[in-house]
Structure prediction request, 288 residues.
Amino acid sequence: MRLAGFIFSVLSVFFLVSPLQAGKTYDKVMKNKMIRVGVLTDSIPNAFYNKQKNLVGFEIDLAAAIAKQLGCKLEFVHLKKDDSRISKILNGKIDLTISNLTHTRDRDKKIDFSVTYFLDGQRILAQKGKFKKIEDFIGKRIATVKGTTTEKNIKNILKELGVDNVDNIVIPYSSDTKCFEALRSGRVSGWTADTGILIGFAGEHPGKFELVGEMMSKEPVAVGLPENDSNWRDAINFALQDIWKEGTFHHIYNKWYGADTPYFYPLTNQFEVWKDIYDGRRSSDLPI
Prediction:
């Protein structure tokens, strides 16, 4: 009986404490007015260091716009494009991540996500004029960032094309920069990643590289958030939607991906907005 009473007490404490912990991110951020944001640092034009050694990019500006909506300051925490984006949320090192993170069901089991703010798709970048379609890469080495959805996708696609030794063909690297360096040096024939990233790096070397073939996947990119904190998730979603409503999102997007940039990538109309945001207007009524 004493053992049963002890177990009941432990379980009671667990169920009482868990709901209190669930909202701790929102409460902490609103109290301190500081958001710790996990970002990449070599993801052109999303988040990278410019020639003046300043951290700039589409996602950096988007993070600043979110913070402004919430009346908070920012602390940037540098991440790598691997499991650290997830792990740093799980261990409480960051309050959210804006890091070209694709929303997948597997990741959703571990963390929460905002509405999709960028719909991207996976393609292959190669030296100009060498390849026309993905089948041309059979037997060729292809770089990708380790632990990403793009690594899983390219392996599955190559298997469907009859390639058996995908682990010898798909070469994982720790960052986008290292993937691009491998492509430039000829150590690999192609580099597969989200199109926006490939356009960013190719834009730094006009006329030397090109995208090959059609998009191989759709990648809904969203803000990564701690699990089970609906107040925090709502705050981020409302901020994103207000940024869209005010036209700030379009301004930021055109600054980095507009037609007059080296990284031109037309904006898709895949931004989830809730009905009352526009007082009856549809998101398609807004200029893109």
About this structure: Residues 121-219 form a domain with the D-Maltodextrin-Binding Protein; domain 2 fold (CATH 3.40.190.10).
